[in-house]
Design brief:
The chain is 76% helix and 0% strand. It is built from 3 helices and no strands.
Length: 67
Amino acid sequence: MTEKQEIIKQMLDLQHKFIELEQRGEFSTAEYYDSEGDTELARHKRSFEELSTKLVDLAHADKGSKR
């Protein structure tokens, strides 16, 4: 599996986890908008953002373009 494929797999896993949390009602509206806290949701959002940034960077590197 390539690095990009692995990142996409991790992002999909995070999306599934988010959907589970959302459907169980395990976070408040305030927690939804808090990306800096230490809640599971905040950590989840930071991880997803880091992975998506890395994926974009890899795509730019593949094409030789700049961000």
